[in-house]
């Protein structure tokens, strides 16, 4: 800030007298802003730099001003440097001969400035995709197993959440619908209803926030009366090709509503190629496909299924989701998805599968996504609430670990909270 010195006809003369200048001379050096004599004098203001004021007030430890120190330096009178003092070790520390080491990695970690300069992995709000649960109601319903998360009313709560996320730099969102039971069926036909909850929500978001990126979930489980990602045969087998046929109609419906990225999470064989062909046939060549390439049959999904009320009515999902014990199998899925036209490859869950994220990163040039799933989120929240961990620090470390493993983008329920930390606004 610069201070303002006000001049008027009455005090100009006083300042001139103090400075020893006569009429017609500037009071501050050769400043031409001082009014000259004339028929009518007007008040004038001269701004004096606060930096100059501060410099004049600063004194060295010796008591000298900056100008006096500079004069001493010009004259060759330099102050003696402070004595070198080595910090003392605690009493009882053994006296030893230093290790004969040419390389000491700790040298690059000895100060905050050096640590920041050599940081290999960075993270920003642009790396986050915020999952949003939506429902037909007007009110936002809290999700018990996921503190801080809600089923958002698609007309109001959703828009408010997106607005707040954008305020801290999060511009990518993925939608998950809570579908009324009355609209569920064995074949999940509601999934491709152009006036269904998801298409309506996409159109609303694109109308209010045209520059955001909208991801969608392509799978039948929110729409299936059986709670599975595909059509269930009477003997309990999940039908692959028939399910893919339904998924193609679902993806086209979402693209028609304005989705930027469709994300098949079903783990049916061949669905990426079929979706690419269906989208292209309808003219949606610019709509991207983020494939859930390595989606494991994990126990970390429990809170999510509560949020959408989408637990399987019977059995489990192990015949189509991957075995958590398998690592190399992810390469088979990666090769298939790349060949079929995927634009982004996703690993789910995230933190327990860092090795798989790195495997995909090292074997594909495509962008890699990681999903920090509901179980990961809820465990961090619970640990923080119980005072067992520092929630904010663990949150940020977990996200950094996903980035370090090779994830370009992270689907996380912490997106808004973490972006607030990165923006210096805290975690609220």
From TrEMBL:
First-level EC class: lyase
EC number assigned by the record: 4.2.1.24
Keyword Plastid: yes
Subcellular location: Plastid, Chloroplast
Keywords: Allosteric enzyme, Chlorophyll biosynthesis, Chloroplast, Heme biosynthesis, Lyase, Magnesium, Metal-binding, Plastid, Porphyrin biosynthesis, Transit peptide
GO CC list: chloroplast; cytosol
Annotated spans, Disordered: 77-112
A single GO BP: heme biosynthetic process
Catalytic activity: 2 5-aminolevulinate = porphobilinogen + 2 H2O + H(+)
Pathway assigned to this chain's UniProt record: Porphyrin-containing compound metabolism; protoporphyrin-IX biosynthesis; coproporphyrinogen-III from 5-aminolevulinate: step 1/4
One of the record's GO molecular function terms: porphobilinogen synthase activity
Record-given protein name: Delta-aminolevulinic acid dehydratase
Gene: LOC101755545
């Amino acid at each position: 800030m610069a201070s303002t010195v006000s001049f008027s006809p009455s005090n100009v003369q006083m300042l001139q007298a103090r400075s020893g200048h006569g009429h017609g001379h500037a009071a501050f050096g050769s400043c031409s802003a001082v009014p000259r004599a004339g028929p009518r004098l007007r008040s004038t203001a001269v701004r004096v730099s606060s930096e100059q004021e501060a410099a004049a007030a600063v004194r060295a430890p010796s008591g000298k001003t900056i100008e006096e120190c500079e004069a001493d330096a010009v004259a060759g009178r330099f102050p003696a440097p402070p004595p070198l003092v080595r910090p003392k070790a605690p009493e009882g520390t053994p006296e030893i001969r230093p290790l004969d080491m040419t390389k000491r990695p700790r040298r690059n970690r000895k100060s905050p400035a050096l640590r920041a300069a050599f940081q290999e992995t960075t993270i920003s709000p642009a790396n986050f995709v915020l999952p949003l649960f939506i429902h037909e109601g007007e009110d936002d319903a809290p999700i018990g197993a996921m503190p801080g998360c809600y089923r958002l009313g698609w007309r109001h709560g959703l828009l408010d959440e997106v607005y707040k996320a954008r305020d801290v730099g999060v511009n990518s969102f993925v939608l998950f619908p809570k579908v009324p039971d009355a609209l569920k069926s064995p074949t999940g036909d509601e999934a491709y209803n152009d006036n269904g909850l998801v298409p309506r929500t996409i159109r609303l978001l694109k109308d209010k926030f045209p520059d955001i990126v909208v991801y969608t979930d392509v799978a039948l489980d929110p729409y299936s009366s059986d709670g599975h990602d595909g059509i269930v045969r009477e003997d309990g087998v999940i039908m692959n090709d028939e399910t893919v046929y339904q998924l193609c109609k679902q993806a086209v419906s979402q693209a028609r509503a304005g989705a930027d990225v469709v994300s098949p999470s079903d783990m049916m064989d061949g669905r990426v190629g079929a979706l690419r062909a269906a989208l292209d046939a309808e003219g949606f060549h610019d709509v991207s496909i983020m494939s859930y390439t390595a989606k494991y049959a994990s126990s970390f999904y429990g809170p999510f299924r509560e949020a959408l009320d989408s637990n399987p009515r019977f059995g489990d999902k192990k015949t189509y989701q991957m075995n958590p014990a398998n690592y190399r199998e992810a390469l088979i899925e990666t090769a298939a998805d790349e060949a079929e036209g995927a634009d982004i490859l996703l690993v789910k869950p995230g933190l327990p599968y860092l090795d798989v994220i790195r495997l995909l990163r090292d074997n594909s040039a495509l962008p890699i996504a990681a999903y920090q799933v509901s179980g990961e989120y809820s465990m961090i929240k619970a640990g923080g609430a119980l005072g067992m961990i520092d929630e904010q620090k663990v949150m940020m470390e977990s996200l950094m670990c996903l980035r370090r493993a090779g994830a370009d983008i992270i689907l996380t329920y912490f997106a808004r909270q973490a972006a607030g930390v990165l923006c210096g606004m805290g975690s609220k």
